[in-house]
Design goal:
By secondary structure, the chain is of the alpha/beta class. It has seven helices and nine strands; from the N terminus they run E-H-E-E-E-H-E-E-H-E-H-E-H-H-E-H. The site of guanosine-5'-monophosphate (5GP) has 14 residues, from strand 5, strand 6 and helix 4.
Length: 202
């Protein structure tokens, strides 16, 4: 059985990662979204064990010292991380896994699992990003400008990724990511072989 593919998706806040992920999971039902641990509190409508595993700082720090994370990072003052064991088990079962994580985390995955596929989701323009962040209605002008500055900074990391996808239309962005996954799964360098091929016939 071929090992599953590890797909990492990052992009600036407000770019629409959540919406694109939902569409992508609809297109590829066999893809599994990894659930992270976080020390932040659940937002209204979020559920422990579904959206995140919400945990205490003490437990998170214990897991860090036990080297239990494939990657972890502090984002906007809260800890977020992906457990190594969960990823290993999924990939060994042949399940393709999607990690929706920040740039610091994505680069740790790259260092530890060279075969991971890193995809950067970018807004069609800074103006479009401003409109999206402002459209959420939860941020004042100061916060919007701060988020845009952070987004500029984050965009500069795109060249550390394998693929760049622009989220102009959600359907198109999700279809592009799905096509990337399809192509990666056919890569000979990943160890795919013709059916019935023993492996030494070259
Ligand atoms: P939120 O709190 O809005 O759900 O997520 C905030 C940020 O944390 C997002 O950029 C999201 O991609 C990132 N994030 C969520 N889970 C993880 C994780 O396990 N590891 C890392 N490094 N970032 C994460």
């Amino acid at each position: 059985m071929a090992a599953g593919l590890l797909v990492v998706l990052s992009g600036p806040s407000g770019v629409g990662k959540g919406t694109v992920c939902r569409r992508l999971l609809h297109l590829r039902p066999s893809l599994q979204l990894s659930r992270s641990l976080t020390t932040r509190h659940p937002r209204p409508g979020e559920e422990d064990g579904r959206d995140y595993d919400f945990t205490t700082l003490a437990r998170f720090q214990k897991l860090i010292s036990n080297d239990a994370f494939l990657e972890w990072a502090v984002v906007y003052g809260h800890y977020y991380g992906t457990l190594q064991k969960t990823v290993e088990e999924s990939l060994a079962r042949g399940t393709d896994l999607l990690l929706e994580i920040d740039i610091q985390g994505a680069l740790q995955v790259r260092r530890r699992l060279a075969e991971a596929v890193l995809i950067f989701l970018a807004p069609p323009s800074m103006e479009a990003l401003r409109t999206r962040i402002a459209g959420r209605g939860t941020e004042d002008a100061l916060h919007i400008n701060r988020r845009l500055q952070e987004a500029q900074h984050e965009l500069a990391a795109y060249h550390l990724y394998d693929y760049l996808v622009v989220n102009d239309r959600v359907e198109d962005a999700a279809a592009s990511i799905s096509a990337i996954i399809e192509a990666e799964k056919c890569k000979v360098s990943r160890g795919v072989r013709p059916p019935g091929w023993g492996g030494d016939e070259r």
